[in-house]
Amino acid sequence: LSLCLSLCQEVKIFRALILGELERGQSQFQALCFVTRLHRNEIIPSESMAKLRQKNPRTVRQAEEVRGLEHLSMDVAVNFSKGAQLSSHIHNVCAEAKEAIYTREEDVKFWLEKGVDGSMFEVLPQTSDLPDLQRCKLCADRWKPCICSYSLSIEWYPCMLKYCKSRDAGGKVSSYKCGIRSCQKGYTFDYYVPQKQLCLWDEET
């Protein structure tokens, strides 16, 4: 799992590499990319991020705050060859997931208002379009289309600044930056796949 942030375009990219099961006819691994809007209050400012220094980079860190699970319906596909117009990071981060880059219609509307070319987006089939479309975990035929679900967790990331208070000689209280607070957050993504064979892990959840 990797997470990439493109602050100026307000883009957040999740990449997941899933090891294949050879006995089930899968290749060595499967790559997925989920692209969503990055809200400014989700992470600390970039100038503060640049000043971060890890004294012990091999230490396993525990998040101070566990944020709620976010369930996202990824109902739009992103064209890999045009994705650089949205974020220059898509070309590198999602190179192994060229046919599996997903986003949400509500995020697309936001980016279109910012001037992004709409030709890179394609709305995926939904249950309203295909009445027989099921969730993959309920679908018995591995070659039928279905709605796949994939969950991941960001175990530790710098989510906000810490502020401390000081008092001067005259008794006036002021605040100053004194550290960084860390968070943990889980995500579940639902998205269309043309055949259940691309979503076999959903049988086990």
From TrEMBL:
UniProt cross-references to Pfam families, sorted A to Z: OAF_C (PF22873), OAF_N (PF14941)
Out at first C-terminal domain mapped to chain residues: 135-203
Residues in Out at first protein BRICHOS-like domain copies: 7-111
Transmembrane domains' residue ranges: none
Family designation: Belongs to the OAF family.
Protein name: Out at first protein homolog
Organism: Psophia crepitans (common trumpeter)
